[in-house]
Specification:
The chain is α/β, with parallel strands linked by helices. It contains 6 helices and 4 strands. Helix 4 runs parallel beside helix 5.
Length: 180
């Protein structure tokens, strides 16, 4: 798992985030797997790309979940750079023998519709172009609900512990396909 604060349990009790819940679900489904959470709060796609090679060599994963890109957008980094970094990470993981699942993200409407549409589309472009799995919107049912604020911490960026099971539910169907 290579992600940012959404996967690094920012503001949560350790062991309560969606990645820890994934580990529990794998055990419940009797799927033998070790989950390595290499997520770092504040991580950008450039940072993930710079760390990925060493992580692949060290852990030799059969599957890699990429949950990066949100911090790129929040910092106003060029979308082309974000997409290129995600493409390079996907290809590197696949070259190392891993199946890849890309977790898509969307931006709030105040970033503008054109930017928001282009940002959301880049995840699908990466997945399709590299034949990787895709979760189109990682925070579906959380950030796009009428009462979304109840599922976010006071900063309105990081989901509460109550949202993390929903995050896992968004990932699980696509990950399960890759596990077969």
């Amino acid at each position: 798992m290579l992600g940012d604060s959404l996967s690094a349990e920012y503001g949560l009790k350790r062991g309560s985030g969606w990645v820890a819940l994934l580990e529990q679900r794998l055990q419940a489904e009797k799927i033998s797997a070790t989950v390595i959470n290499a997520s770092i709060s504040g991580e950008t796609t450039a940072g993930g790309r710079s760390r990925l090679g060493a992580l692949l060599s060290l852990h030799r994963p059969s599957h890699v979940i990429l949950e990066l890109g949100g911090n790129d957008a929040l910092r106003g980094l060029p979308l082309e750079s974000t997409q290129d970094n995600l493409n390079q990470m996907t290809r590197a993981a696949q070259k190392a023998g891993a199946r890849v699942l890309v977790l898509g993200m969307q931006m709030p409407p105040n970033y503008g519709s054109v930017y928001g549409e282009r940002f959301a589309a880049l995840f699908a472009n990466v997945a399709k172009g590299n034949r990787a799995g895709l979760v189109p919107f990682f925070l579906k049912g959380i950030a796009d609900t009428p009462d979304a604020s109840r599922l976010f911490q006071a900063d309105r960026i990081h989901p509460t512990a109550q949202a993390h099971p929903l995050m896992l539910d968004n990932v699980w169907p696509e990950l399960k396909k890759l596990l077969k």
